[in-house]
Amino acid sequence: MRMKKAWETILPPMDSPANIKIRNSIITALEIDEWAFRESEIQLIMNLRLKLMRNLLESRESKYKKKVQDRFARLEQRLGKRRDDQVKIIQQNLKRDLRKLCTKYRDKQRPRSKFDIIERYADSKSELYALQTHSGEHETLQGSLSKGFAEREDVTPSPLPMIGGSKLMKHKPKSVDICIRETRWTGEKLKQLHSDLKAIRMKVKSADTIPKLMKRAFKLPALPSEEECRDKKIRTIELQQLRNNQSMQEDRLCEILNSLEGGTVCGTLDFLSKELVRLEDERRAHASALLAERERCMREAAEAGRRQLERNRRREFDEMFKQIVKVNQDSVEAYLEDVINEGIDWMNKFPNRKKQNP
Predict the structure, then answer these.
(1) Which of 9, 144, 206, 275 would bridge 199 by S-S if both were Cys, CB 3.0 to 4.6 A apart?
(2) What are the residues whose beta carbons fall under 8 Å from the beta carbon of 200, sequence distance 6 or more?
(3) pLDDT, tens digit, for every residue of 52-109?
(4) What is the pTM of this model?
């Protein structure tokens, strides 16, 4: 507005149509320049706003991707830990089963002492020459006594509970009938087995002796001690607590940064929106001022035209009056001359009458 007022003081006055046209063209050029500057400012503000919004969206997307990646990493870590625990449990079960199998096959492969009455009587360290009171009743003696007592009294012995012996009841094995087609012990095989066992008992080497299986040395794996397990569990708990604390601190820091960034972006957007509203108000005010100025110029031009027409009309009226006055002046002069001439004639005639009348 100040620039416009300054230009209005410099512009030529509105006293002719040419000056009015020049003035209007200069004012229009100034308005176009000013509006171009305003449009460039508004465009700059809008570009800055779009840039800030794009940066905000990119930051939100990157934070969301990072959050998803952290979640997948935690899930992978949890699943990996669960997998390791399951693998450890499977390994422990495998070690226990291997130890059981080793114990079972070691007991099976252990050579059993065969009962030989001649060797037992020949060996002075056998159980026959030792006291049998510490292991319960004597088998041979009890058997002979019970048999003789049964022959004398003709009664069947009933099993009575022993006072000093074991109280465990031995279960009789169930009879299992095996199908002939499903078993591998046929008559020929049983005969061959009987001949082999007989040859072994008589200490005679048979031709079809089966070689003994060699004992396989199983190496039992070393189990971790209780102190190592406890230390490992304590370290695992400490690492888990440390990771939880770090994740909580990172979440708090992200929340603080997000709040600060949100406040800054909110303030910037608020300022830009206020500036945009102010520019729009200035634009509307400027447009209304331009309309008022244009109306004023049109009124002034109309008034100048009316003044010009009034001047021309006055000039015409003056000319007409002058002509009318000039005609009247000529007629007055002629009338006065006529009157004077008549007066002169009358005065000339008056003495003559006086002379005639005495």
Answers:
(1) 206
(2) 206
(3) 989 999 999 999 999 999 999 999 999 999 999 999 999 999 999 888 888 887 766 6
(4) 0.26
Give 269: exposed, middle or buried? Use CB within 10 Å, 0-12, 13-18, 19+: middle
> What is the C-alpha separation between 268 and 231, in angstroms, rounded?
55
Distance between CA atoms of 215 and 43, rounded to whole angstroms?
93
Between CA 53 and CA 64 the distance in angstroms is 16
| Structure tokens belonging to residue 314 | 């006055």
* Buried/exposed code over 217-240 (b: 16+ C-beta within 10 A; e: otherwise): eeeeeeeeeeeeeeeeeeeeeeee
DSSP 131: -
Q: What's 115's DSSP letter?
A: P
b/e code 23-45 from CB counts within 10 Å (16+ = b): bbeebeeeeeeeeeeeeeeeeeb
> How many Cβ atoms sit within 10 Å of the Cβ of residue 20?
19
C-alpha 354/C-alpha 358 separation (Å) is: 7
* CB-neighbour burial class of residue 100 (10 A; exposed 0-12, middle 13-18, buried 19+): exposed
- Cβ atoms 304, 15 nearer than 8 A: yes
SS3 of 163, please? coil
Contact partners, residue 138, CB within 8 Å, separation at least 6:
132
Element (H, E) at 162: none
Would you say 165 and 139 are in contact if contact means Cβ atoms under 8 Å apart?
no
Task: Specify whether the CB–CB gap between 297 and 24 falls below 8 A.
Answer: yes
Helix, strand counts (H, E) of the chain: 6, 0
Locate tokens 């001047």: which residue?
311
Q: Are 18 and 25 in contact (CB under 8 A)?
A: no
When computed from its CA atoms, the radius of gyration of the chain, rounded to whole angstroms, is 70
Q: Quote the CA–CA distance of 50 and 56 in Å, as a whole number.
A: 10
Q: How crowded is the C-beta side of 63, counted as CA atoms within 13 Å?
A: 14
Q: How far apart are the first and last CA of the chain?
A: 101
Encoding tokens for residue 220?
A: 């039992």
